[in-house]
Amino acid sequence: MLSDELRRKGQIAWDYSDWNQLIERKGLTGERIDALFRQYSSMESTSELLSDFERQAAELGFLTRDIRRLRESARTYVLNGIAGGALIQVQISAAIRTHLDSLNEGLRRSTLDYLLANCPIAVAEHFSEADTRTAAYIIEYLRHC
User: Does residue 115 or residue 45 have the better pLDDT?
Assistant: First the structure.
């Protein structure tokens, strides 16, 4: 929770000559605090979210064997967020949500494929595997759309 995040930020204790590096490694922004509160005050349990994930993946036309593989990536993505994650996890989540904001209607397979092919650079660099990106996009769609 917030105390865990503050403790994690306080673990490394050397001086920084670069202010931006100090903020990135040691700072806790209002955005990060808001994200932590949203993350830990959510009523939606992990199992419910993963169940919704399976239904959404099936609606998108993924085969059963693909859904099983994607579900594991989705589970890892969700649990990394619950574990407090790093600032990069919050930034990736925000980048995906912003990218999903371009949707004019519900998520369709062709739209998902387009979004994945044109995902932000930070998402592509952090999630190099297609399954992980796909799972993250579906999870964020379920959380925020």
Answer: 115
Cα–Cα–Cα angle for 53, 124, 27, rounded to 5 degrees: 90
Neighbouring CB atoms inside 10 A of 52's CB total 17
Region class of 84: left (phi > 0), else alpha (psi between -120 and 50), else beta: left
Q: Are 63 and 54 in contact (CB under 8 A)?
A: no
Between CA 122 and CA 125, with CA 58 as vertex, the angle to 5 degrees is 10
Q: Whole-angstrom Cα distance, residue 81 to residue 100?
A: 19
pLDDT of 55 higher than 50: yes
Q: How far apart are CA 121 and CA 26, in angstroms?
A: 24
User: Could you tell me if 134 and 116 are in contact, meaning their C-beta atoms sit under 8 angstroms apart?
Assistant: yes
The structure's pTM equals: 0.70
Angle at 48 between CA 128 and CA 138, to 5 degrees: 30
H or E, element range at 90: helix 87-100
Higher pLDDT, 26 or 78: 78
Show the domain range for 87: 31-144
Fill in the amino acid letter for 16: Y
Domains contained in the chain, number:
1
